[in-house]
Amino acid sequence: MKKYSLLTTAAILVLSLAACSTATSTSQQDTTAAHQEESITQAEETTALPVSDTASANNTSASAATTGQKNALNKAKSYLSFSAFSHDGLVKQLEFEGFTNEEALYGANNCGADWNEQAVQKAKSYLDYSSFSYDGLIQQLEFEGFTHEQAVYGADNSGLNGGQQAVDKAKSYLNYSAFSYDGLVQQLEFEGFSHEDAVNAVNNCGADWNEQAAKKAKSYLQFGSFSRDSLIQQLEFEGFTSEQAQYGAQANGF
Questions:
Q1: Of 121, 120, 94, which Cα lies nearest the Cα of 105?
Q2: Alpha-carbon dihedral of residues 169, 171, 177, 180, nearest 10 degrees?
Q3: Domain ranges of the chain
Q4: Do the domains 208-254 and 67-113 match in fold?
Q5: Is the CA virtual torsion 122, 199, 240, 243 positive or negative?
Q6: pTM score, whole prediction
Q7: Could you read off the pLDDT of 126-143 as tens digits, one per residue?
Q8: Strand, helix or coil at 249?
Q9: CA triplet 90, 95, 101: central angle to 5 degrees?
Q10: How far apart are CA 145 and CA 161, in angstroms?
Q11: Eight-class DSSP state of 205
Q12: What percent of the chain has pLDDT over 90?
């Protein structure tokens, strides 16, 4: 009987130990699962930033700007203190100075420039030393990097007088080349002046068309050989009248 009792006691002891082991394993699994759920929740909270925080992360604030960006901004303000630039023109100028594209963009984006007013200033600076038609001035401003809208604003607010600009342009042409009446009208129209402004300018430029024919004939004879008749024909082709062409040939020895 004692032997039977000992075996029974041993069996009960083994079952008890197995039950404890199972309970401990289950408890550890529950603890691990709880830790995993907590980690996932924390990760989701970290990833789901507010929209405002995400947007601000994509913008470089003044305090977060690099030394290169700050120097580009200072250089941009310096340029604008004595000259006018478009946004793209200023970026290119800063890149020419050695700044990276990122630094140059930062400088242009944060310099506080009113690009419409920059277009006005640039238009006025052009008119200080040259003559432009309205369309010609817009094209020039667009070439400088201004948008079409900015260029139109600049031309509209530059004080441009199309009629006077056409007269000035006609006189400018006659300072270095010879034109017939019709030839000069066509040249001004090519520059973007209206037919009315071009005709008015040619009528008021003070040209002597006989003398213009003589100058044009001389320029032809400097690089080619002509008979009297062929020279007259060439001058007529240029828009001179028959009388003006004959005067031009005669003034050059024919």
A1: 94
A2: 100
A3: 67-113, 208-254
A4: yes
A5: negative
A6: 0.66
A7: 999 999 999 999 999 999
A8: helix
A9: 95
A10: 23
A11: S
A12: 74
User: What is the full DSSP assignment across 42-85?
Assistant: HHHHHH---HHHHHHHTS--TTT--HHHHHHHHHHHHHHTTS--
Rounded-to-integer distance, Cα 97 and Cα 110, Å? 18
**CATH T-level fold of 208-254:** Arc Repressor Mutant, subunit A (1.10.10)
The answer to whether domain 67-113 has CATH 1.10.260 is no
- CA gap 10, 147 in Å, rounded: 95
CB 232 within 8 A of CB 246: yes
Position of tokens 């007269």? Answer: 167
Token pair of 225, please? 């050989």
- Kindly tell me if the per-residue pLDDT of 120 is higher than 90: yes
Which tokens go with 206?
């003070």
One-letter amino acid at 33 equals: A
Alpha carbons 220 and 156: distance in angstroms, whole number: 41
> Any idea what DSSP says for residue 111?
S
Q: Which amino acid is at 14?
A: V
pLDDT by residue (tens digit) across 34-60? 444 444 444 444 444 443 333 333 346
- In this prediction, residue 34 carries a pLDDT of 46
Helices 242-251, 209-221: axis angle to 10 degrees equals 50
Give the residue ranges of DSSP H helices in the chain: 2-47, 51-57, 67-80, 87-96, 101-109, 115-129, 134-143, 148-156, 162-176, 181-190, 195-203, 209-221, 228-237, 242-251
